[in-house]
Amino acid sequence: MGIFLSLFIYLISYLPVILARDVTRVTIFVDATKTVATNDEHFICATVDWWPHDKCNYNHCPWGNSSVINLDLSHPLLANAIQAFQSLRIRIGGSLQDQVLYDVGDLKAPCHPFRKMKDGLFGFSKGCLHMQRWDELNQLFNRTGAIVSFGLNALHGRHNIRHNAWGGAWDSNNARDFLKYTISMGYQIDSWEYGNELSGRTSIGASVDAELYGKDLINLKNIINELYKNSSSKPTILAPGGFFDQEWYAKFLQVSGSNVVNGVTHHIYNLGPGVDPNLVSKILNPQRLSRVSETFGNLKQTIEKHGPWASAWVGESGGAYNSGGRHVSNTFVNSFWYLDQLGMSSKYNTKVYCRQTLVGGNYGLLNATTFIPNPDYYSALLWHRLMGKGVLSVATDGSSSLRSYAHCSKERLTPLASQYLVGKPVFPFSIDGRE
Known about the structure:
This protein is α/β, with parallel strands linked by helices. Helix content is about 25%, strand content about 25%.
């Protein structure tokens, strides 16, 4: 019986080691008798953020016209880049999503663009999504076959009560009107995400109590059940779109209860600030990259104990935070971090991995001005085309710097020889008939 798999192998270490003359013999073993985890068929995901052109970090403003509001949706390279995946998952969300009003229904607030505001959350005022723009976005999604996850405003109606803690009841009326409009237009939304980075001690900008947040999710679930009762398909709910805080995550899952949340989303920026002069060294340091495995493992355990009906998602990950590393996050070296993240997260049963961003900041898969793909775009596309849903166990012997990940092949590429049987080295390997 033939076994078909895809194997990613690459060496990560400090540059002096890479350039050393010494050669280490490495043996790789793949256990192809069973899968150790399973990804979603549309594992690769990219985000589109809300940041306006004057979002700046470290005296540099890398966003340009790349946001939900001002992205050039007619650019042919943008459509081609999405279509290359046939069905690329796109997550719309980010830091400003909890300040977005939807210009539909009985909106009792002015609908203005984001503008700089000293006392505003993240230094910006509330912003607005006009329905004409929503129509244009969905035309792009329909044309390119994109699978859409949309992040809803979870702070509407709330107020700051102390420090960064927000209280009061969520005003769901604007979100309800937005969902009603979306349904009336026949727009297919795969999943609705509730809030962005509001999770307890790891919240950014604003936080919401886990019990209050859990009750909100029950409310959102009821709204979705009501509005989609005549629909042939019902979107799922994602939450909380924050940095992992084990106690907070466990609490909101307990409060929201069985089968309310379908995808438990968390964010990862494990390389530190984008301005760090040692960013390349961090990317090429296998020990540094391995630290985040603890987060993947703890989240997996939390879901198994408190929400076994849900699955783990990386809802946003850009490597380096504050718009990424200039002249690093958009270069070839960043793929050592990115591919390692895709492989490592897969082993912990992560269903979806959303890269920050499709376009925008220094970490975009596409150049924010020309839409020409950056190196990580090709890494994402290669993974999408080669790596199937089934994750296999891999063991290496000979080098701690070698990262190797194996999946069942997404498609039957070429017959692979019996060298892939259990217990026998699988290197060299072939994906196109040539070793």
